């Protein structure tokens, strides 16, 4: 923080006057906020589930010897302050997890919860167990509080936020009912929803359902109706005429008495539930079935008769259009008014990658379309050009549409394939393959669906549909009355999508949704090549007490740490530091007989990371000592040094504040506690040679929202 410009900034607003953290420092503080205000209460829910609150005292007393052996005898993994919370002398005080920070709860779970196994290493990405989620949160928490820079790059922040957020959502999945019924946890619910890797905007979802289901169903129903009117038919007549071919297009293929060997040449695209929606089987020798099957087949196609169908159902209308040649030809004639060859030109790239998997010069990403058209069929549509500027081998642009091509010259199967993968109906097909994933893509770009509906609407003769076209083009459904989807319908739609989601080998993302049964965590299968919509990774409802806590964290990393660093470099030059190192090394080697090291405290408790820092073979690594380690080393200096007693007192003050902040069970400081803490920090910093930081410390009081 540059105080040299302070006087020149007096006329500016308070927000401009008082220096704010940099972007990277804000990223760090956002992670601290996430860990202390969201992760900690969620870990506490898991803790209370594994160790019932009314059994906590009993469980602690029963395992006191084991706890002491594991966490106190050799190293103070659980420090004195934490130990007092568990076995304090005031018997009247009820022990409660509300007083525990993440690290203490993790250590207790390791000992008192036999079903929980929490590791020290960061779990592999594919491990989605509760154990792994707790391990991830523990790892990120330890990493954050040991940071001496107090900053994260944007890439680091996004990675840590996403991974920690998913761990939190996974942990909270079995506790949502308890949260939802607790009015005090309203803020937590909002923040959990904000953690969603996918955020559901129900207004947008309602519009998407209108555009992807309600509009198309009305439009396709009208197209089929106009086809029937134009040909003076009813749909039952059409089905009766096409019954034989549709019978053999079933996925569940069966022979019939007319073509017992040739039925296998049909492409199998009609699922059994669709066939059953279109036809019903009659009893033998009934008045509706006079056919006598020469092959004596129990399910001969002639034993089926058309049902009275509802063409407003998309799962019925789309297959009818694509698989009944006369209907498809009618749609093509209305759709390709500028010529079938123009349609092939416009959709050449899409059709090419339904035949060829390799990437071409027009591809931004690797093609993911399924191969549907073979090369022989492709050659009926396009011809290869000899002279093209593109140097990519076997590229889409090496081909051009065959001159004078007409759709009437192509066989029905190829036409069906063409319009299955390209044109407006293909957009509806893609939606049907995974409606929720398409919704996510649509929130970023709705042009393809809007254009598809506009094209289909223009096929219709009935001019009353011009209003629908207008609403589609503007994405405005406010005037459509009953056609407009309500939020309750959207929640039900969401529930159905998650319930029917197909299992894949892709990793799943946990998200919180509010569906027909209330709040719940759902696992969403997201392909690795799918780009999720961008979202802002922060909480906007920070309270003054939360801000106070984060301001102190910021002060410790950006003001206190540099002051202690400078004081350490002054008071612990290389020769002094080496002497202290030797004493600590001797202690760990059980060689404490040399009187030269009597000034060293009897019990030395350093973390593994601190020992690695202290005994690194690289001398320059002393510049990476964390705050706790530097304070510890400074206090190991000879007692006779001038001013050491006063220094140690102020170092103890800083260390106490550091411990109180980073072992906080709440992540908040009320205004009284904040002022006392800042006053103590200021006195210690000034005593330890940080007078230059006095104005910066005063400025911290004026930061209203440090996360902005």
Question: Would you give an account of this structure?
Answer:
It is a single chain. This protein is mainly alpha-helical and 708 residues long. It has four domains: 9-194, no CATH class; 329-482, no CATH class; 484-525, no CATH class; 544-700, no CATH class. It has helices spanning 14-17, 23-50, 56-62, 64-73, 80-87, 102-112, 130-145, 154-172, 176-180, 186-194, 202-230, 235-248, 272-278, 314-323, 325-335, 340-346, 348-352, 375-378, 412-421, 424-433, 435-444, 447-457, 466-474, 487-499, 544-571, 574-588, 608-614, 627-634, 644-662, 671-687, 694-700; strands spanning 279-281, 304-306, 382-384, 399-401, 508-515, 518-525. The protein has a two-stranded antiparallel sheet with strand order 1-2. The protein has a two-stranded antiparallel ribbon with strand order 3-4. Helix 2 packs parallel to helix 6, helix 2 crosses helix 7 and helix 2 (23-50) runs parallel beside helix 8. The longest helix has 29 residues, at 202-230. The protein starts with 13 loop residues before the first helix and ends in an 8-residue tail after the last helix. Mean pLDDT is 84; it is low at 1-18 and 591-602.
């Amino acid at each position: 923080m540059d105080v040299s410009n302070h006087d020149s900034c007096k006329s500016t607003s308070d927000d401009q006057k008082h220096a704010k953290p940099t972007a990277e420092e804000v990223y760090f503080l956002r992670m601290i906020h996430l860990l202390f205000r969201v992760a900690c209460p969620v870990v506490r829910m898991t803790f209370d589930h594994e160790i019932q609150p009314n059994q906590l005292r009993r469980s602690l007393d029963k395992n006191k010897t084991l706890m002491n052996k594991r966490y106190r005898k050799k190293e103070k993994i659980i420090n004195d302050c934490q130990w007092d919370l568990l076995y304090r002398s005031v018997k009247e005080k009820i022990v409660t997890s509300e007083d525990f920070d993440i690290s203490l709860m993790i250590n207790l779970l390791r000992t008192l919860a036999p079903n929980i196994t929490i590791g020290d290493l960061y779990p592999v990405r594919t491990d989605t167990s509760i154990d792994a989620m707790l391990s991830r949160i523990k790892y990120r928490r330890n990493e954050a509080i040991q940071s001496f820079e107090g900053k994260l790059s944007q890439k680091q922040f996004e990675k840590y936020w996403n991974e920690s957020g998913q761990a939190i959502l996974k942990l909270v999945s079995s506790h949502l009912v308890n949260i939802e019924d607790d009015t005090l946890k309203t803020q937590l619910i909002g923040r959990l929803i904000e953690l969603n890797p996918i955020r559901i905007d129900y207004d947008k979802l309602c519009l998407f359902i209108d555009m992807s289901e309600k509009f198309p169903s009305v439009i396709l129903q009208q197209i089929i109706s106009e086809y029937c009117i134009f040909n003076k038919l009813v749909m039952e007549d059409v089905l009766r005429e096409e019954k034989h071919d549709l019978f053999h297009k079933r996925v569940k293929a069966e022979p019939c008495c007319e073509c017992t060997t040739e039925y296998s040449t049909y492409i199998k695209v009609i699922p059994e539930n669709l066939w059953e929606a279109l036809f019903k089987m009659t009893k033998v020798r009934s008045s509706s079935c006079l056919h006598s099957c020469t092959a004596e087949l129990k399910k001969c196609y002639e034993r089926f008769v058309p049902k009275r169908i509802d063409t407003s159902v998309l799962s019925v209308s789309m297959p009818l259009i694509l698989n009944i040649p006369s209907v498809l030809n009618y749609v093509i004639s209305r759709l390709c008014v500028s010529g079938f060859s123009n349609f092939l030109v416009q959709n050449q790239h899409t059709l090419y990658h339904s035949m060829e998997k390799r990437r071409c010069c027009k591809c931004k990403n690797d093609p993911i379309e399924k191969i549907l058209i073979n090369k022989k069929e492709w050659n009926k549509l396009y011809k290869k050009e000899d002279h093209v500027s593109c140097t990519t081998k076997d590229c889409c642009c090496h081909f051009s549409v065959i001159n004078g091509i007409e759709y009437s010259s192509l066989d029905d199967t190829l036409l069906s394939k063409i319009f299955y993968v390209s044109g407006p109906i293909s957009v509806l097909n893609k939606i049907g393959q995974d409606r929720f994933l398409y919704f996510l893509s649509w929130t970023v770009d709705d042009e393809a669906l809007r254009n598809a509906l506009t094209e289909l609407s223009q096929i219709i003769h009935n001019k009353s549909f011009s209003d629908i076209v207008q609403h589609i083009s503007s994405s405005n459904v406010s005037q459509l009355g009953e056609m407009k989807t309500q939020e309750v319908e959207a929640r039900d739609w969401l529930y159905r999508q998650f319930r029917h989601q197909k299992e894949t080998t892709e990793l799943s993302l946990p998200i919180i949704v509010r569906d027909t049964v209330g709040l719940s965590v759902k696992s969403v299968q997201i392909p690795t090549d799918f780009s999720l919509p961008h979202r802002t990774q922060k909480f906007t409802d920070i309270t003054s007490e939360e801000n106070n806590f984060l301001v102190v964290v910021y002060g410790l990393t950006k003001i206190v740490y540099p002051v202690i660093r400078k004081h350490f470099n002054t008071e612990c030059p290389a020769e002094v530091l080496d002497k202290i190192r030797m004493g600590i090394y001797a202690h760990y080697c059980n060689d404490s007989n040399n009187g030269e090291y009597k000034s060293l405290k009897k019990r030395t408790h350093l973390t593994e990371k601190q020992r690695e820092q202290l005994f690194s073979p690289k001398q320059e690594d002393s510049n990476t000592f964390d705050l706790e380690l530097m304070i510890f080393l400074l206090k190991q200096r000879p007692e006779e040094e001038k001013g050491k007693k006063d220094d140690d007192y102020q170092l103890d003050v800083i260390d106490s504040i550091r411990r109180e902040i980073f072992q906080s069970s709440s992540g908040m400081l009320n205004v009284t506690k904040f002022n006392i803490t800042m006053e103590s920090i200021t006195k210690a910093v000034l005593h330890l040679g940080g007078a230059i930081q006095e104005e910066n410390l005063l400025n911290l009081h004026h930061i209203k929202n440090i996360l902005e």
